[in-house]
Amino acid sequence: MHINELIEKKKHGQDLSSEEIHYWIQGYLKGDIKDYQVSALLMAIYFQGLNEKETYDLTNELLHSGDTVDLSSIQGIKVDKHSTGGVGDTTSLVLGPLVAAAGCPFAKMSGRGLGHTGGTLDKLEAIQGLSVDLSVQDFIKQVNEIGLAIAGQTANITPGDKKLYSLRDATQTVDNISLIAASILSKKIAIGSDALILDVKVGDGAFMKTKEEAEKLSTALVKLGKAFNRNVMALITSMEEPLGQAVGNLIEVQEAIRVLMGQGPQDLEDLCLNLGAKVLVLAKKFDQEDQALEALKETIKNGQALAKFNEMIKAQGAQIDAQGLLDQDLSPLLGQVTAQEDGYLASLHALTIGEAARRLGAGRLSMEDVIDPGAGIYLVKKIGQKVTKGETILELYGKDSSEIQEIIQDIQAGITYSKDPVQAPTLILHEVR
């Protein structure tokens, strides 16, 4: 067997066997198969695709390329959530406490943000003293004690995926459904939760730009999860504008707290409640989603969800509580984006806003970049709301004002107006089971 044979087969649309995929991944990890050879194979896969069995075999190889986490000692059915990434995507910080307060263990190992997509770990690290570096033993202990932990992945989870993803990124072969599905599910299965809900974003600020693409990815993910005997479902949700009103790190933590207090943006609260209700049914905590939804709403009303958030951050070393975080100052206000005419906001270019937040210091282009926790953007107005000329639409926070005028101009270019009333985007578009 030789890598060139695999390239030739896939180039002509032929299927790769389990043994051939094993040979390819293991050879690449050992260094016997070189980057340029795998690049050629990835390009062939990009154009010819992988069938369901090939996708399963690739996922299995990536899954077993490193450590797996055994969470069987956590009491109850453990749940997790994965988002394909967006702008202002604060859902994990709300969903975890909600689900845990409703009596279902939420065990999430998360990642850091790159580009315009914020990472949950970066948001948590905006909390003074909090550590996301939990050992597996401490992670399990914390979930057993308080029902909730959000931490970083151990160093050796799916190293094959890390190496392959870097090459996919360099060779423009990231956006292939099978490769995306294998990458996501290999990590999630390695981490060991019983039930998984997937938030597949679609729209301007998402990786998937059309509903059709999002449906294909969701279907592939759910099928793949079930093939590995996991209880999985997906929600396809809109990312035509940022979710909620905050884009950044500390600013998103503050928004999550407001949602847990029942004072946050309606779209973010609605999405978290819907995700939570579905995952509680997946975990067999409730038989019906409407029952689960009422239970989650009650945890907000009675303060249990906020209390669970405080328990989690205290357990992970935070030197401040939710109220203290709300009182904490952001970085300086550098500028404002104002309405250019009277009317209704018809569009807010989510990707441009996400990129603007990164340029303000809230994100990174490489993992070595240093984040400013207090940088970010606050959306005073959203699509469908009425504005008058000169009224503030967005507030921009950061420490470096050198690019602020260019950032404002870029955001302005992505805003459109209508003289007639505009409907806000529908948030939840479809579900896949």
TrEMBL record:
**Enzyme class label:** transferase
Q: InterPro entries per the record?
A: Glycosyl_Trfase_fam3 (IPR000312), Glycosyl_Trfase_fam3_N_dom (IPR017459), Glycosyl_Trfase_fam3_N_dom_sf (IPR036320), Nuc_phospho_transferase (IPR035902), PYNP-like_C_sf (IPR036566), PYNP_C (IPR013102), Pyrmidine_PPas_bac/euk (IPR018090), Pyrmidine_PPase_CS (IPR017872)
**SMART domains recorded for this chain?**
PYNP_C
One Pfam short name: Glycos_transf_3
Q: What is one cellular component GO term in this UniProt entry?
A: cytosol
Catalytic activity annotation: 2'-deoxyuridine + phosphate = 2-deoxy-alpha-D-ribose 1-phosphate + uracil; thymidine + phosphate = 2-deoxy-alpha-D-ribose 1-phosphate + thymine; uridine + phosphate = alpha-D-ribose 1-phosphate + uracil
The signal peptide annotation in the UniProt record is none
Gene Ontology MF terms in the entry: 1,4-alpha-oligoglucan phosphorylase activity; thymidine phosphorylase activity
Pyrimidine nucleoside phosphorylase C-terminal domain segment(s): 344-418
Tell me which Gene Ontology terms the entry assigns under biological process: pyrimidine nucleobase metabolic process; pyrimidine nucleoside metabolic process
What does the UniProt keyword field contain? Glycosyltransferase, Transferase
Documented EC number(s)? 2.4.2.2
Q: What family, per the record?
A: Belongs to the thymidine/pyrimidine-nucleoside phosphorylase family.
Q: What does this protein do?
A: Catalyzes phosphorolysis of the pyrimidine nucleosides uridine, thymidine and 2'-deoxyuridine with the formation of the corresponding pyrimidine base and ribose-1-phosphate.
Assembly notes? Homodimer.
Protein name (database record): Pyrimidine-nucleoside phosphorylase
- Which organism encodes this protein? Urinicoccus massiliensis
Q: What is the lineage of its organism?
A: Bacteria, Bacillati, Bacillota, Tissierellia, Tissierellales
Annotated gene = pdp
